[in-house]
Structure formats: structure tokens, C-alpha cells
Amino acid sequence: MAGAVGLTDAKIRGLQAPDAGRIEVADKVVSGLRIRVGTSGAKTFILRKRIGGRIANVTVGRFHDQRFTLTDARKKARTLLNDIEGGGDPRGETRRMTGGGAGTIRALFDDYKRAKAGKRSSSEVERIFNKYVLPEIGDRLADSVSRAEVTRLIDGVAAGGSRPTPVMARAVAAQLSAFYSWAMPRLHRLEVNPCRDAGKPDKPKARERVLSNGELKALWTVLEGEGLPWGPSVKLLVLTGQRRDEVFSADRAEFDLEAKLWTIPADRAKNGKAHLVPLSNAAVAILEAVPVIDGSAKLFPSRADPERGASGFSRALARITADMVKELTGDAKEPAIIDHFTLHDLRRTMATGLQRLGVRLEVTEAALNHISGTRGGLAGVYQRHDFLDEKRHALDAWAAEVGRIVTSNGCSEVAKLHA
Asked: Which residues contact 164 (CB under 8 A, 6 or more apart)?
């Protein structure tokens, strides 16, 4: 057997098959990792480690220039070492030949998805696991993951990318904790949820961003030149104040244009409560102009998958914001400055506008489908009025106010009303 050397992919490719038996070359970077070459020329990574008091060889994977390189082998070997040091045994029945162990987070997540199928949040749970959890710790034995490792995962999400994402990091922490609460009765050796007391970012300060009248006018002007789905969809966000996914994932069947009413079903509403949204004449005109896409029930179907709503919000909003800067700058020498805003801030902008117009707070909450404040707690138990007429009056007034802002030359005070 050859001595330990610094393995590289090039050195592995250069290893020749022995005339008889097999050869093994140890890696200096990951303790116990070796590449084994048999007479057939097949090159297989193994991990040699003491398990249960005996030296054992654990298959890591077959070397391949693209599908399974030395880097992949080292990453997987470190995962196996963590599991072994945590008391696990990744051999035999506890690990499939594909590398996805029966007790791994990835394998358990398949059962977890089935258990949560039909839940309103199931698609978001799957997205979070596929993007943040499974790529990092999906092949770990679920009962060997420590609190410190969960903390490192959450910290990585919070600091990842060009813009810090503490909100997403907290969402990942919450979903991973929920997964472990479900998994604990199914894991004999796990006594404590590793997410309990794991570090996570502080709850962010509530956003206060509201678009000014000038910004709202610039936004609407830019949207006039935007094609599908962004022009009409963002206009609907402005006019209705509903949540981003409620607009972008809407089915055409939810809209009764003759009655000027949009019914958001309970399984799509964030709070699980069906919501009636009166449609202003301006909103109806936008909806009437949206073409029907053959083969899709969605109002704004994804180009890649007609059964899903449109996506790509970040890139679209960045482009729209850049065009708003040009619109606001005009002939000025210095470019205008627009503070960062999100599509959700359009919802807050409408709510603020309704308050400026003199709309009662409980009507504003009803229009937003908020089950909090005056509609939450004990009051919500006894408050069963749907405020449909009041919501229609308020949203019609807001559409008129948006129209006034868009066509005005200045930013005069709004006309007060009561709804």
C-alpha cells in the first residue's frame, strides 16, 4: 500500500490498475480517506475508521471526473466522520448505496414532506429545505447533528450572498426546528431538538418603508412600459394591497369581473382565512387586459411551468427600480436616489394611504386580511362582520387616489373620506 500523499484529481486519474489484488492511496487532507484501485481499473473512495471498537471500511463513492471528484469525496468523508464520532454507524442498512442514508435528514425529509402534504406552507417548506438545508446537511445522520452545526448553518444563511438575509435565516431555523420536532419520535438516539437554543439572528426591526407620491407616480409610469407579468401584476399589488404570492399565484377562476370581486381561497391566504377583495374599476380594467395563456389556469403563469405562478421578483424589481431612478431624475444633472423597497412595501403604502384618506383602522385591516389588532384575539372571536361594503368603498377611494397621484404634477394633500 502506498504511503500518504496529497491526492489530486490528476493523480487519481493517473493511477494504473494493478496486475493482481488492489492498491490503496491515502489522502493527507482528510484522515482515513483513501482511493482504492482494483484490477478492473475502477477507482473507489473509502473511509477507514474505527467503528464500535473495530476498524471498518466505509464506501464513500466511485471516482468520476465530473460527477464525484476528490472534492466531493472529501466533503462526504467529513460528513461520515462527524456521524461516526457522534456514535452513528453509516454502514449497511443505515446507509443506501446511493449515499442517502435511511437515517439521514434527506431520507427523513421525504417522509416529512408526505406528512405535511396538503398544508398551505408545504411548498415553502420544500423550497427552504432544497435551497438551504439539504445541500449542507442533507446527508448527515439526523440524530448526529449538533446545536453548534445548526448554528453554523443558520449563520451561513444570514451572511450569505451580497445582501444579509436575517429574515430568511430565521425562517430556515423555524422550519428545521419543526422538522426535528416531527423527527424526534422516529429517532431512537435523539433526546433533544438540536435547534433548541441554537443561535439565530435577532428578529429584524419592522419595516417602515412607504413609497412617496412621487415614487408611486414614477413606479406606475414605469409599469406602463412593462410587459407581462410585471406591469399588470405590480399594478394589482398597488391597487389591492394583497400579498405578493396571492397575486402572482392567483388562478383566473378566483376573479369574478362582473361582480368585481376576487376571492382568495383559504389554502392560498397566509392566515388560512378565505378573503374577499373588492375590485375597483381600474383593477378590473387591468385584469380584462391580461391575456389567457393556453394550458394554464394561472393569471400570471411561469414560462417554465404553466401550472405555477410567475417568479423572478428580485431581478424584475431591480430593473423596475433602475427605471424609476431614470424617471425621477429626468433632466437633472444628479441622479435621483430611491431607498430600497420590496414588493411587500407596496402593501404598506396602500395601508398608509387608506389611513391618510380617513379609512377606519378595522376596515384597513379587513382589506389587508390581517387577523390581528382589532380583528385578533377575543375581539376576533366575536367580530364576524366581513366589511365587504366598507372594503369596496375604501379600495375604490384608493384607486381614485392612485389615479390622482399618477396624473398630477405635484403632490398635493389627499382628500379625506370616511369608510
From this structure: 158
Nearest CA to 311 out of 321, 300, 319, 320 is that of: 300
Regarding whether 115 and 31 lie in a shared domain, the answer is: no
Could you read off the pLDDT of 297-342 as tens digits, one per residue? 999 988 888 888 888 888 899 999 999 999 999 888 788 889 889 9
Q: How many independent structural domains does the chain possess?
A: 3
| C-alpha cell, 115 | 406528512
Residue 294's Cβ-count burial label (10 Å; 0-12, 13-18, 19+) is exposed
DSSP 56: E
Distance CA 177, CA 145 (A): 12
For residue 164, what is its C-alpha cell? 444579509
> Could you read off the pLDDT of 268-308 as tens digits, one per residue?
877 777 889 999 999 999 999 999 888 789 999 888 888 88
**Contact present, 307 and 296 (Cβ < 8 Å):** yes
Q: Please tell me whether residues 399 and 329 are part of one structural domain.
A: yes
CATH code where residue 235 lies: 1.10.443.10
Residue 161 and residue 262 in one domain:
no
Q: What is the CATH number of the domain that holds 47?
A: 3.30.160.390
Q: Is residue 200 part of a domain?
A: no
Nearest to 294 by CA among 312, 307, 283: 307
